[in-house]
Design brief:
homodimer; alpha/beta; five-stranded parallel sheet; 8 helices
Chain lengths: 198, 198
Amino acid sequence: MKGKLFVLSGPSGVGKNTILNRVIAASDHVRYSVSATSRQSRPGEVDGSSYYFVTRERFEEMIAQDELLEYAEYVGNYYGTPLAPIREAMKNGFDVVMDVEVIGAKKIKARVPDAVLVFVAASSMDAVRQRLIARGDVSPEAMEERLKRAVWECSQAEDYDYIVLNDDVEQAVRELRAIMVAEKCKTVERIHLLKEEF
Amino acid sequence: MKGKLFVLSGPSGVGKNTILNRVIAASDHVRYSVSATSRQSRPGEVDGSSYYFVTRERFEEMIAQDELLEYAEYVGNYYGTPLAPIREAMKNGFDVVMDVEVIGAKKIKARVPDAVLVFVAASSMDAVRQRLIARGDVSPEAMEERLKRAVWECSQAEDYDYIVLNDDVEQAVRELRAIMVAEKCKTVERIHLLKEEF
């Protein structure tokens, strides 16, 4: 059976990475899709794990050769999703999870229609604000910018297949894992098993 | 939030009751929909728990007054699904699970379009045969009849939303629970939470 692609989006500070790390740690058949970027690596970041760090020239070559499922330019740097590692993992039966902002997620859905889009939200904007403050690396202006962006992102949630609420991380992890199991139980994924047998 | 209706079908002997009992025992917000029947109760059966046992006259009155979500006559006895207890449980936030054969399940889907249909199958017909033999209450002729019926039922699985494979009961219970959680995470169920907040 082929793996499936699960695309997570949600406001900065909503806890997507925590959820993804927990789900990956709890399963031996889930892989994280590493993004490529042309930005400089920061201390502690590992090539091939945090990101694939490539030159601007190499990134533009990847664009030209259609090696990316989606890409975007942000504050002068490219960010994108290399297709080949995802294809390879899915072929080998792994589910692939990734964290992509809203516009990228929609591009992916257009190219991979059976990708499952999951929007991670908090039931109050205040919880998101608190998490951003706790991180401590955001200026008040950047914070307001992110909160405004969060409101816009939430307005796009309608185009997603599922909404996971991260008010409680245990609950959010349980929900994402349930979605991943349920998607594999859909009739379209399994009807061939009955047809072979009967 | 309103509860949802989950309708299970699948061949006799595939283990639907075991799965349902386990799922109900594991959750405090799941209720079993008890069927009504005009047949005599058997030793050990409890009115209101195994079935609602009613007279043939009362059953026909329930039909006439549209009190049933679906009904059928089988070997001279009526069997049907009373609507009122389901509505009441769902209004109080309970998910409702039920075990209905294929034709009844399709009638329910036509009347309650957001009911979730789950087909329980085994990946081999032989497993179903073994379970029927283990029960020991079925003659060889009745067995062949049931197996023929099982093949027909499996040919109807295409109209279901999900297929749960009961080769391993733990796995099947996990799958049904995942489906129930995932269905509550669907965007259509939750988008209002984001709209209220933002």
